[in-house]
Design goal:
Number of strands of chain A: 15
Helix content of chain A: 25-40%
Strand content of chain B: 5-15%
Mean pLDDT of chain A: 88
Low-confidence stretches of chain B: none
CATH class of the largest domain in chain A: Alpha Beta
Shape of chain A: elongated
Order of helices and strands of chain B: HHHHHHEHEEHEEHHEE
Distance between the termini of chain B: 50 Å
Number of domains of chain B: 2
Shape of chain B: rod-shaped
Oligomer: heterodimer
Largest interface: A-B, 26 and 32 residues
Structural class of chain A: alpha/beta
Mean pLDDT of chain B: 82
CATH topology of the largest domain in chain B: Heat Shock Protein 90
Distance between the termini of chain A: 64 Å
């Protein structure tokens, strides 16, 4: 039995998939979800083999939902129109369905997945897709994190500074610190370069939060933030800051 | 000035008297004219322009003559025969003054009205271009491909289970597209027409998001006959749906209401939003700023589109001056 979950905010879009799936008696649909929040819950609960995932959904989009899952299942993306996502799918040879899609097209995608099931390769390309998706305009404006059982959306403007913490990055905001399972390199690429500066190997600062810079030890400085927090600045970090601040 | 000095000199006054007289007379007249030109720049009546100018000229020439009578006597009163000469020449001076101020006023009238014409022309062509661009943009982007393909996908779903409803939706979608295409030609439409195509759009969105979307259009009795620039409301409603539906996961209500405020048509669109995750920058994205820009180009006013937030409700209202 193949376990699948459908995630799409439009009921009629799910209805089509359900109907097409009737031709595959070996496939069992465990649940239908209206949005990414329900999706995360259902995936953790049922551990499906495959999900059909819409990109544009309320609150968090399909990519952001996948980021919240530690071991994401195989995915067949469905979308009506999203130039950015489609480009990402093409580059990483990931199968996707453009709405409205025919029964033949749908069956082909499903059959292909079943033929190569085992899926190690697919898993890798899913994470590559997410790296790419993080560069999309909509996703560069916020960070979605899982905080205990809750999902939190942080607009990037609210991130005061970032700090490396083992395999995670700690995001410091006015509501406290949150962990995201990404690297500093990832944030350096995805956060707007004119607002966030990598001040040190293990931290980044939002420029407008800085009130002053104080010399610390030899060739190092401390950035004092509006909140009073102090962030170490290395020699290279200092020269980057000077450029952004126009000194 | 030289001419006037010549005339006074020839009448038997000293060279010095002649120069002083002409200096004061022509100098004050020039100042008067400059003042008039300056004030005309700020206020120019729409009607009875010529009468207004004539009044200006007479007034100015009159004041100037009286002023001369008063001021010239001070330094020149002792010169023999000068005060008599001055009194006799006042009428003539008044006439010359009137002629000069009249000519200057007429020249500035021509200059300013030409300038106005140019401005108007420039605004109009720019506005026409903007509308065209916006309409093209709408067909490509705003009448989002996303909306179109998702609607087709819904129809695809209905064909299998509810063919009657599928047929109905094909009809609605065609009517909406036709209305959008037709509106490319008309700058102004009645509010009634505009609301009708908005209703079509909302009906289609309701099929897609049936369980979550509720929208109502209400308007005061007198408003449907009022005029509105085509496609001004569409971006506001799209914006409301986008932020309402994609910013929350609950069911949402989008009220559209038309009323009048003095001589203006007032239309407001509301949607719920989530203040904790809402990013203000996107709240004034292309949709709203294109509306604001178009209103400016049409009416040369920046205050016609207003947005406000009240707790979890975002409200955009647009005021439309009625064409006379």
């Amino acid at each position: 039995m193949i376990k699948v979950i459908l995630i799409d905010d439009e009921p009629l879009a799910r209805l089509v998939i359900r109907e097409y799936l009737e031709a595959f008696p070996q496939v069992e649909t465990l649940q239908e979800c209206n949005d990414g929040f329900e999706g995360v819950k259902a995936i953790q609960q049922y551990q499906p083999d495959l999900i059909f995932l819409d990109i544009q959904m309320p609150k968090i989009n399909g990519f952001e939902m996948l980021e919240l899952i530690d071991h994401p299942p195989a995915v067949i993306f469905t979308t009506a129109f999203d130039e950015f996502a489609i480009r990402a799918f093409e580059t990483h040879a990931v199968d996707y369905l453009l709405k409205p899609f025919s029964k033949e097209r749908f069956s082909k995608a499903l059959q292909k997945w079943m033929d190569q099931s085992g899926g190690g390769q697919r898993q890798a390309s899913t994470s590559e897709i997410l790296e790419d998706a993080a560069m999309s305009p909509s996703q560069r404006e916020r960070v979605v994190i899982k905080n205990g059982g809750k999902i939190k959306i942080i607009p990037v403007q609210e991130i005061r500074w970032l700090e490396a913490a083992d395999d995670y990055v700690k995001l410091h905001t006015k509501d406290g610190a949150f962990l995201k399972n990404k690297t500093m390199g990832y944030f350096e690429k995805s956060l707007p370069a004119d607002q966030f500066v990598r001040t040190h190997r293990s931290n980044m600062v939002q420029v407008k939060e800085i009130t002053r810079l104080e010399p610390y030890e030899k060739e190092t400085w401390l950035a004092i933030l509006r909140s009073g927090e102090k962030v170490p600045v290395s020699k290279t970090g200092y020269s980057k800051l000077k450029i952004v601040l126009g000194l | 000035m030289i001419l006037q000095a010549q005339v006074v000199y020839n009448l038997g006054f000293s060279f010095q008297t002649a120069i002083l007289d002409s200096l004061i007379s022509i100098g004050t007249l020039s100042l008067g004219c400059l003042f008039m030109v300056g004030s005309l720049r700020y206020y120019f009546p729409e009607n009875n322009r010529y009468i207004y100018l004539l009044a200006w000229s007479i007034l100015l020439a009159g004041i100037w003559s009286l002023f001369l009578k008063w001021v010239l006597l001070k330094p020149l009163g002792q010169v023999t025969g000068y005060s008599d000469f001055l009194l006799h020449s006042l009428t003539l001076r008044f006439c010359i003054g009137l002629l000069v101020t009249g000519a200057v006023a007429l020249a500035s009238l021509l200059y300013y009205s030409q300038q106005d014409q140019k401005d108007l022309e420039k605004r109009r062509t720019e506005s026409e271009k903007m509308t065209r661009d916006a309409e093209l943009y709408k067909l490509r982007q705003q009448l989002q491909p996303h909306f179109l393909f998702n609607s087709l996908n819904s129809i695809n779903a209905l064909i299998g289970s509810r063919p009657e409803q599928a047929r109905h939706m094909v009809q609605q979608l065609s009517d909406f597209l036709r209305a959008v295409l037709k509106r490319e030609e008309n700058q102004w439409v009645t509010l009634g027409d505009e609301l009708q195509s908005l209703q079509l759009y909302l009906d289609i969105e309701k099929v897609r998001f049936g369980h979550r979307l509720d929208a109502t259009i209400t308007c005061e009795e007198s408003t449907p006959q009022m005029k509105i620039p085509a496609m001004i409301l569409q971006p506001l409603v799209e914006n409301a749906i986008k932020f309402g539906l994609y910013d929350t996961t609950e069911a949402i209500h989008i009220p559209v209401h038309a009323s009048t405020e003095k001589a203006l048509l007032l239309v407001s669109v509301q949607n719920p939003y989530d203040p904790t995750t809402h990013i203000p920058k996107t709240g004034t994205g292309f949709g709203l700023s294109s509306v604001r820009r178009r209103l400016y180009l049409l009416f040369a006013r920046n205050d016609l589109l207003e947005t406000s937030t009240d707790q979890q409700i975002f409200k955009a209202s647009v005021k439309i001056p009625q064409p006379s």
